[in-house]
Structure formats: structure tokens, C-alpha cells
Amino acid sequence: FVQASTAVRDFRLALLDVTARLITFVGGFLIIFAMLPYTLEPVVIATLACLLVLTSAPVGLQDRWPARLILPTWAVDYRAQISRLRDEPLLTATPVAALATAAPQVTQAVQAAVSAQRRETLQQAVDELFRYNRFHDDGFLLQSPLPPLLYPNTKVATSPTPADVTHLRARLVNTIDEELVRLTLPATDALDEDVLGLLILRKKYVEQRSRQEVERYLLEAHGVAVRGGAYSRALSAGRRHLAGALLAADGQAG
């Protein structure tokens, strides 16, 4: 954000500076060339050279009387605007902090958008985790780089340590179990998609059961037939719920 502000300011500075130089140079050339006879061409060239040096001088030069005599008023105004831009302080705060001083409601909207984006990213990480990797009793079989958002203790997603793998497995299993307990505390006859999805995650990925075994377990233990599209929808709901639970836990820890 700060780099973007700097780039915009530098562009405006360059544009105004070039405009002032061109106006001054062309205006001075026309005025001097019209006033002097053709026999004084060397004088014209020397004068234009001096004028070019003058317009290339520092911005503060327009405050001196020779510049005010030679530079047109509109050129002086351009140079003054350049001075104001150069002295203009840059925004050094983060966008959210800057918005907080101006409009709290806008800040809340920005923070909500950032939270939603992080939730979506975390959900994608959970999807990738369960799509390409498998749990085992003795650890975690890696078949792809693991998402860094699921690793609070390391920044290297492609080479997690055994401790990271153990921590991740325990974290996911504990989170799934806690959410199942929390969601099933109110005794209900029907299980919603979130609960079904968490049960599928628990059986399929943690306990390494096949899809047929998971479907049979749900039918026998809970009396729910979850097949075809209902199975896929429940699995997606479970992943979303797990991602949200992990994100909420991160927020509380932070």
C-alpha cells in the first residue's frame, strides 16, 4: 500500500516537472527568438542553454528573483505544486489502521473481508490436506506439500518435521472430536450435514475406512443413508466446518 502511494506520488512529480521544463523552455525560446535579429543566433543559443540550466535547477529556485523574472507565472505554479508534493508525507500505517481513523464501519468491512478470505484459504488448505494425504496410526503419509496455514510451528510447508506431522494429526483429530461433541450435545433425531461431514472425516481419513465402510457405519450407527451426492455434500460441509473451527481456534489463540 505504501509502495503504491510512493509510485503515484513519484509519477505526479515527474509529470509536473517535465511539464514545467517544457513550458519554460519552449516559452523562453519563442520569446527570445522573436526579440533578437537573426545575426545574433549565437546569443540565442547561449541564452537557451542558460535557460535550460535554469529550469533544471532545484525546485526552490523559483523563489529567487531571476527565476521570477524569467519563468512565466504558470511555470512557477507548476514548480510550487511539485514542492508541495515532495513535502507531502507518505502513508506509513497499514490500510486497516488508516481506515480506523477515518471510518470505523469501513474498517470492520475490511476486516470481515480479510477474515472471509483467510477462512476460504484455510478451507482450501484442509481440502488439499485430505485430498492428497492420509492418516495412519504410526504417523502421516505425505503425498503432497502440506499447507503452511496448518503449521503454526514452521514456515516450511514442503518439509514438515515429524513433530509438525504429529502436532497436525493430533490437532485435526482433537478438533473433529470436539466439534462432534459440541454439535451433538443438543439431542436431535436428525444429523445435519456438518455433523455427517465430520463423521465422514473421522472415519475415512483418520481411521482409514473405505467409503463403503463409512456409508455402512452411518447407516448402522446413526440410521442415516448417505450416498452419492449427499455423501459429497456432507464431506464438503465437514471440511468447511473443520476449517472454520481451526480458524476460530487460531483467533482465540492469537
Structural features, described:
The protein is an all-alpha fold and 254 residues long. It has 2 domains: 2-87, no CATH class; 104-253, no CATH class. It is 71% helix and 2% strand. A two-stranded antiparallel ribbon has the order 1-2. A hairpin with a 2-residue loop joins strand 1 and strand 2 (139-141). The longest helix has 34 residues, at 2-35. It is rod-shaped and about 110 Å long. The chain starts with a helix and ends with a helix.
Task: Tell me the layout of helices and strands.
Blueprint: H1 2-35, H2 41-55, H3 65-70, H4 73-87, H5 95-102, H6 104-132, E1 134-136, E2 139-141, H7 162-184, H8 193-206, H9 211-222, H10 229-253
Antiparallel strand pairs: 1-2
Helix pairs in contact: 1-2, 1-4, 5-6, 6-10, 7-8, 8-9, 8-10
Number of domains: 2
Tally of helical segments: 10
Strand content: under 5%
Tally of strands: 2
- Percent of residues in helices comes to over 70%
Radius of gyration: 34 Å
The biggest beta sheet is recorded as: 2 strands, antiparallel
Low-pLDDT sequence parts: 57-76, 88-107, 135-149, 151-158
Identify the quaternary structure here: single chain
Separation, N- and C-terminal Cα atoms: 24 Å
Strand order of the largest sheet: 1-2
* Rough outline: rod-shaped
Question: Strand pairing plus helix content: what structural class?
Answer: mainly alpha
Order of helices and strands: HHHHHHEEHHHH
What is the overall pLDDT average? 61
